[in-house]
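Figure 2 data, in text form.
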Amino acid sequence: QVQLVESGGGLVQAGGSLRLSCAASGTRLSINGMGWYRQTLGNERELVADITRGGSTNYADSVRGRFTISRDNAKNTVYLQMNSLKPEDSSVYYCKVEYGSWRTNSWGRGTQVTVSS
């Protein structure tokens, strides 16, 4: 089972920036897709952005142009640079990775992002 360690969440004012990191460890299998999701209380978890091993990216409409996802395959780490943050971006952000030929998913524990107005 892949272990994921997320970091970088916190409290920021509207218009500010944060950078989330998620490092994967515990497997020799290839890490395929990596992504960030978010969930607020009472709502379903939603995709924020994901990235393939080759670097193709996909973004939710609500964050496109403000957030940038990237990854370092040598470090098995995925990043989410969040700029021009809005109060509605406040949420718990979860990292997810897909690995191995069975396309197994593993989730991080989440990191809180709070944007004050």
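Caption note: The chain has a mean pLDDT of 96.
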